[in-house]
């Protein structure tokens, strides 16, 4: 080894930061020129508001803020709509420049022009072998045993309408092209025109969704991510893994290894939304299978062109000749039939001298039949899907497709055609392993009380008493006796209430679906062991074979704390252990526990519960799988993926991650192929790490301190939320919570029955506070807990916990990130505008608590400003603090507009017509105010109301877009 | 205006020439490494043969040639197959590097990195206004009045199987990506692997097509060019024209202006191929309409996302509300129905607040119905397509689609949404104008004698005598009386021979097809006016309304010379003139006249005939359209497009060009989007030029000299071909003409009945000479004609004609190009190997004639070597001479192998088994020799025969690939 002074080059400083700025200003100019073109005078107002908002965001002075408020208040109602809409659009355009910018960075990283900017540097697989003393073989084995299952769930708060999403996707794509492709001047003119056309089209589209999307709609757009992006990226990613493995002298991944599986709740999640019925679920299953068949059909067709060779292995030859012989026996009929099907090519029976095509065209015919059968299932709602597929000899079992493809693969390998075998054929085999014939597994989710209702209806009908009034022990004994016996329980012709009938219909319908289309049966609000057994029994009664694995979802803090007990009860039962044969899955949710105990207590309860559950399972030699429901916006426990993965207690993931991908996260993580590639990349390396280099277990004194922090924050949280009588009033007056119900976001109602905070569902609760920028549910109580601990000299311990305990790190990072987005001044403005004076001291108190929380968080994380990025390698990419600051001039005016709209609407409701006289005569404005088809004719409202309504809706979407963090 | 010494930069010298070489050597290395992997010892032999062939191509010495021949002769039969196959593959790979190279050049030109290399520099529209004193408006008007109609015809000599074409397309695409995209090292590895996989797959595929393609197969692959390439490129091209027009202050092209129309013969051309039946034609019409509907369906669906705005014009609003009202009346049924159709989106009835979507989703439903109906037509062969479409209320008339789209366009323009109107909506309107609902117009082509047969069957049956034996005058009178009368002629239940029945069935079938799916009815071998009227009558009798325009195809020299007379007879008839209302189309073909009079006489006859036809038409105030059938390989009058267009007599094109795109030209001109764009580009500018700046008319003395040259060359040509008794023997012995019949190229037999040259069809006649590199039909007779003229001092006139008369220029350029590919030495080798000694002097004579022709051509074109490119701007692109030289080391071995195979086959036929004992026992070889499914079992041949057969087939394809000129 010798010495030499060396030199090296990197992409120059700040190039991507300016990139972000240039795109941002390009899109802003395009937007303004469109705005000026359609509403010249309004454009000038938007310009001034933006300038005032910017001045305030930089100076943070009261005078600037008052200037901004005064100016916005002087807007006429119809102007408020358009101004709100302008800022909402500018915000969305800004967000996608962030996405474009990060995919530029992705590309730069890949082309090796710079190191990857995410926090810790990534070394490739190669490095692990050198530094950690692990052999390549160990890393390879670990990789072969890991799967990541991503479960897509509906967009409860999916703010943007699909059509706007499409238009922004066009802008994003053209912008990206502008950066990465050399083009002639004409092409550049046409690209800029395409961008302009898309922005123009977006601006002229009504951005408020006027009718509720059906679950099938959701399923459709979910499916389109698969067919347009995910289906193609998965094999590319596997191929890239193979190339990397080869470079370090390891073999490719095994043929039947799939690093990813996909699941979905769309059309299966009936918790709280009545229009997910048995039929809906059936539809989405059929639709998903249809999508899968269509994509395989295309793959098989193009494989028919690729595999035109005549040499093959004897087994292959024998199969091809058998098929060719069968076809030539009725050549005319086959040709006739194919003609009807209007195949693109290969009508005539194919000679056995093209063995691969013979087999493939046979597969094509079966795929065509499968498609026909599935169509039939769509048309005739009560055909059993499984039955129909079986008797039509369609593809039902995936091995029917895998076997011949595998045979072709082996044949090509044996005749020395490895490079042909490892191209499109290998891709197809991998897609088959990843997506199967169902594309994804559909989870069914139902609330425990609905099953209790059914059992009660049965026991009452049979005169065994009322199941609902039995205590837990009686239920358990009854359920276990039934389960270990053979007698049918469900009496035919029992009359049922509609709710009971629906649950029973669902179970029956499940028995007719192919099992690979179904994932887990999730019981939300699961509290006791009987909740689980009831479902096991109901499945057996309805003939669901093979039964879905039953997954309890422990949501409230109480249920979480009892979860280990509940699981012990279950796993201690011999029959049940045999029934689950060695594996049990539990789901732990964030949102509800956060609502009634505060974020810290919820996170800690979750952490401990996971450990206890793992311990309970290990005690009975059961492999426990934890299903993580991760929220979209940070409020619901989102945040950068692999931080989240690292922060799990060790031993909870070990090679198998099942997690939900919620809300607009789907668009962000799977919207483009480039982005999707990176998503798969991040999950794979995060899980591999969790398995091979797990985070160290936390020290005892950290646990004790953490427990204390959890209790203190919980007490404080509850004393404010539940034991401060005027808190509810303050909440309902200072947020849009009461108006949220009417927003058509997501397909489920926002509260279970009336009265008090505890009746509010977690999502609207968090969403309401996010909108008014206090973000209370995330931080409330944490400040005091930390203050208490610091007061007794635990500061160094806390700092140590933050520095070395990933769980504590990611918990505080999340809170810090939210605090960076909170704005006490704006929240105070909501109060000033909407809350009656007597509640002001409460607001005053809440903002003090916010400032205190921030102050103590900064002490623990050792920064003197929120999000103060402290590692130099972030030099050239815009860091999070930067991103938030670039957005806030767009969000502030939306907050001001929202508060004013709420005031307008509430005053109007109080005074009836008297309060305001607003009667526009300009037809342009009348049209603007009557875009809601459901409010025409007698449903029409007073123009002022519909103006404020629309303005409110738009600001809600805009602020949501401003609060999300991309990438 | 002032002075300054200026500087400018160009792409450096030879960069593209090296580009060509690098790609060439890259693909050759990939191919050799695959060859070495599978057949190591054979690879070494191919290497030596290539080296020997290269040495000979550079030194042109006898000793090198004999070395090459000896080495090739020592190959074992199975080695010959593989060697032939190797060179054929290397040649195809080389050809696509030329294509890649020229699309690199295309890109470089577009990005302005270099000037375009084609011979004369192209200035843009702008320049015309400055130099030629034409106003922009004139240029604009001329552009608006021009259409180019491209008629795709089947691939009679389409050498490559579709599957090989696909694989080479992959190689071409990946190679292009390698050049134009920056990629990471991993991406580069994967691209090179993809190339390797495709080459490997191509090499392992049986390149001989073992069964004849059906017309529907041809139609299918023809259609795929539309859906994958042409359909998308046409609007992009129109958009580019608009952008250029805008830059010079002109408006966009009018909305309903289509610069291009497309036609096809695939499935309509029954001249000489019996398996194009009435049903076939119907199928292809339905298939084409299906393809069109499918593409419009996709366009409408994505437009539904784009046009989500709520503002629209009153007319638009009124239409949307009418549709929305109709749908909401039966909302449930509509939703139900859409559910069955499994639309990707927009199930539920759409509210009128989204007017564009309401109308578009209504269009989508009708498109869906249209598709269903067309499917039915495919399944039930005797449903009348037009009838079925009508009663189902499906789209039959294009205005049904254009009207609502136009309404949307006007609506968007009126609400100031021009940039939205001019994006995807404008593209769709243009596609509609270009492709209509039929995608293309199908021409029907039938031989005149088949109609004479039908008329004869009718008149005999009616006892009016035998039509076939009537003279022309009697026929004319009879036909005209019938046409001007109303009485039906065809008696029901007349019994017919199968040939007559087929013709009658075709006419009846035509009456049931939508008229926009049909183009012209072309009568091949048209000789007299009655040939035309017979078809007019037969159409009326069969109820073909509106009737297809009847286009006579004058093929032989005699028919060409009588064409003006024939047309005068027709146009002088008042009834007929009224019937054709102001427009008549004639088709003039090259190939046959070339066969019986030689190239020069044929070209001149064509030239004069066109002028006379135009004159005759002008005399009767009829606009004459000339339909040019342009061949594929040069032999059949191909050659660079706009030279060909410029060389037409002035006044024959004037803004309307109808031309066939034959053979592998389709793959070359429409295989990729980049190439397709350039094709449309070339045709547009060539036609615009012909209209605005026509070539000057030739001077009288040029005509007289040309007439002389034509007669002299014709006499000489005939004296050799028809009046040299042993010529036919020489031809049949020294070429593969007799074996060509069995080559499954193209779907039609190669000769009409037996005996002599005149029974041979033009295509095989030319093809046979191309294969043995004498190219006799192209140049025979030209040498003497020129020699005669030069001998009498016409040399300066000839040189003047070449320099200033585009017709003479392009005629001689074509001959020069062919001479550059001719190789007397190889032709002599065919003779030495295959022809009996007594015929040697004839061969000797033919080669002397070749040398003499070359010598005199060079005098006239003032070059001292063939293809001596004499303009410096060609500095950096490989010129034609270069291309030919780069290929010849690949072609020469194929010629040697072909001659040896022919000898082997013929000796075997003479001596039966006796001659050769070749009985391979190696199973690998036995497989190799039994890849033909039709020759299994009792159809099996002696292994030597099938070895030589395959070798022959492969060399024929290879040489064809070597003789074509790309780009």
Automatic annotation (TrEMBL), chains A, B:
Active site: 155, 595
GO CC annotations on file: cytosol
Keywords assigned: Carbon dioxide fixation, Cytoplasm, Lyase, Magnesium
Reaction equation(s) it catalyzes: oxaloacetate + phosphate = phosphoenolpyruvate + hydrogencarbonate
MF GO annotations: phosphoenolpyruvate carboxylase activity
EC numbers: 4.1.1.31
First-tier enzyme category under EC: lyase
Essential cofactor(s): Mg(2+)
GO terms under biological process: carbon fixation; tricarboxylic acid cycle
InterPro entries, per the entry: PEP_COase, PEP_COase_bac/pln-type, PEP_COase_Lys_AS, PEPCASE_His_AS, Pyrv/PenolPyrv_kinase-like_dom
Cellular localization per UniProt: Cytoplasm
Any matching Pfam family: PEPcase
PROSITE patterns: PEPCASE_1, PEPCASE_2
Family from the record: Belongs to the PEPCase type 1 family.
NCBIfam families per UniProt: PRK00009.1 (NF000584)
The protein, known as: phosphoenolpyruvate carboxylase
Source species: Pleodorina starrii
Highest classification ranks of the organism: Eukaryota, Viridiplantae, Chlorophyta, core chlorophytes, Chlorophyceae
Gene behind this protein: PLEST000570
């Amino acid at each position: 080894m010798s010495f030499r002074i060396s030199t090296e080059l990197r992409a120059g400083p700040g190039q991507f930061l300016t990139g972000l700025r240039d795109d941002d200003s390009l899109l802003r100019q395009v937007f303004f020129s469109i705005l000026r073109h359609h509403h010249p005078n309004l454009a000038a107002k938007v310009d001034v508001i933006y300038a005032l908002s910017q001045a305030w965001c930089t100076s943070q002075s009261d005078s600037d803020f008052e200037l901004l408020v005064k100016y916005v208040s002087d807007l006429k109602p119809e102007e408020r709509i358009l101004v709100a809409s302008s800022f909402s659009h500018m915000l969305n355009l800004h967000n996608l420049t962030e996405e474009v910018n990060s995919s530029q960075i992705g590309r730069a990283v890949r082309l090796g022009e710079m190191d990857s900017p995410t926090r810790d540097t990534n070394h490739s697989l190669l490095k692990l072998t050198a530094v950690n003393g692990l052999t390549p073989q160990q890393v390879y084995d670990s990789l072969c045993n890991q799967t990541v299952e991503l479960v897509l769930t509906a967009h409860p708060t999916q703010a943007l309408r699909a059509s706007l999403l499409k238009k922004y996707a066009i802008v994003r794509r053209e912008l990206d092209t502008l950066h990465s492709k050399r083009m002639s001047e004409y092409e550049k003119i046409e690209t800029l025109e395409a961008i302009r056309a898309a922005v123009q089209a977006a601006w002229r589209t009504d951005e408020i969704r006027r009718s509720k999307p059906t679950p099938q709609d959701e399923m459709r757009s979910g499916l389109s991510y698969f067919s347009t992006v995910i289906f193609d990226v998965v094999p590319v990613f596997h191929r890239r893994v193979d190339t990397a493995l080869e470079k370090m002298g390891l073999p490719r991944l095994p043929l039947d290894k799939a690093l990813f599986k996909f699941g979905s709740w769309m059309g299966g999640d009936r918790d709280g939304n009545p229009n997910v019925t048995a039929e809906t679920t059936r539809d989405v299953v059929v639709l998903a299978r249809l999508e899968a068949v269509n994509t395989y059909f295309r793959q098989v067709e193009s494989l028919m062109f690729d595999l035109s060779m005549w040499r093959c292995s004897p087994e292959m030859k024998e199969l091809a000749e058998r098929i060719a012989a069968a076809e030539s026996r009725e050549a005319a009929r086959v040709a006739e039939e194919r003609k009807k099907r209007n195949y693109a090519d290969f009508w005539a029976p194919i000679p056995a001298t093209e063995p691969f095509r013979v087999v493939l065209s046979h597969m094509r015919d079966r795929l065509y039949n499968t498609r026909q059968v599935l169509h039939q299932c769509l048309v005739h709602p009560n055909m059993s899907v499984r039955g129909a597929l079986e008797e039509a000899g369609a593809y039902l079992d995936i091995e029917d497709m895998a076997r011949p493809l595998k045979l072709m693969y082996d044949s090509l390998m044996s005749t020395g055609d490895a490079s042909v075998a490892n191209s499109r054929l290998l891709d197809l085999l991998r897609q088959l392993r990843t997506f199967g014939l169902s594309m994804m597994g559909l989870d069914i989710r139902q609330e425990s009380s609905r099953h209790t209702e059914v059992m009660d209806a049965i026991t009452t009908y049979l005169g065994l008493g009322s199941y609902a009034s039995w205590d837990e022990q009686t239920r358990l004994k009854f359920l276990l006796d039934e389960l270990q016996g053979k007698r049918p329980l469900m009496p035919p012709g029992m009359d049922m209430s509609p709710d009971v009938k629906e649950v029973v219909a669902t179970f029956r319908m499940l028995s007719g679906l192919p099992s690979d289309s179904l994932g887990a049966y999730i019981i939300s609000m699961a509290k006791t062991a009987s909740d689980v057994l009831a479902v096991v029994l109901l499945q057996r009664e309805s003939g669901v074979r093979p039964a879905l694995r039953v997954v309890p979802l422990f949501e409230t803090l109480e249920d979480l704390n009892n979860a280990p007990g509940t699981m012990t009860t279950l796993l201690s039962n011999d029959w049940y252990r045999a029934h689950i044969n060695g594996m049990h899955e539990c789901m732990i949710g964030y949102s509800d526990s956060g609502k009634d105990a505060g974020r810290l207590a919820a996170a800690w309860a979750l952490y401990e519960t996971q450990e206890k559950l793992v311990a309970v399972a290990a005690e009975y030699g059961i492999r426990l799988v934890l299903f993580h429901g991760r929220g979209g916006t940070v409020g619901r426990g989102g945040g950068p993926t692999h931080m989240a993965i690292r922060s799990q207690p060790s031993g909870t993931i070990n090679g198998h991650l099942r997690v939900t991908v919620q809300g607009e996260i789907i668009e962000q993580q799977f919207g483009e192929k480039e982005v999707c590639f990176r998503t798969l990349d991040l999950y794979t390396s995060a899980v591999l790490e969790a398995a091979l280099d797990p985070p160290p277990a936390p020290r005892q004194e950290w646990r004790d301190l953490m427990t204390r922090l959890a209790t203190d924050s919980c007490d404080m949280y509850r004393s404010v939320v539940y034991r401060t009588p005027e808190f509810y009033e303050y909440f309902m007056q200072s947020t849009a919570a009461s108006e949220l119900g009417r927003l058509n976001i997501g397909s489920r109602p926002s509260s279970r029955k009336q009265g008090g905070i505890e009746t509010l569902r977690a999502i609207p609760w968090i969403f309401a506070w996010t909108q008014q920028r206090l973000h209370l549910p995330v931080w409330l109580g944490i400040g005091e807990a930390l203050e208490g601990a610091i007061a007794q000299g635990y500061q160094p311990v806390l700092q140590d916990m933050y520095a070395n305990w990933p769980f504590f790190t990611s918990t505080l990072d999340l809170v810090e990130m939210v605090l960076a987005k909170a704005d006490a001044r704006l929240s105070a403005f909501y109060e000033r505008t909407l809350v009656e004076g007597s509640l002001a001291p409460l607001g005053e108190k809440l903002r003090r608590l916010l400032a205190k929380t921030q102050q103590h968080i900064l002490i623990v994380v050792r920064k003197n400003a929120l999000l103060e990025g402290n590692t130099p390698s972030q030099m050239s990419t815009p860091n999070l603090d930067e991103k938030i600051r670039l957005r806030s001039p767009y969000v502030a005016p939306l907050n001001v507009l929202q508060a004013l709209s709420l005031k307008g609407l509430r005053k109007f409701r109080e005074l009836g017509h008297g309060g305001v006289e607003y009667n526009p005569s300009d037809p342009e404005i009348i049209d603007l105010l009557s875009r809601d088809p459901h409010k025409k004719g007698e449903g029409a409202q007073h123009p002022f109301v519909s103006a404020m309504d629309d303005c409110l809706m738009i600001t809600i979407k805009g602020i949501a877009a401003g609060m999300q963090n991309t990438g």
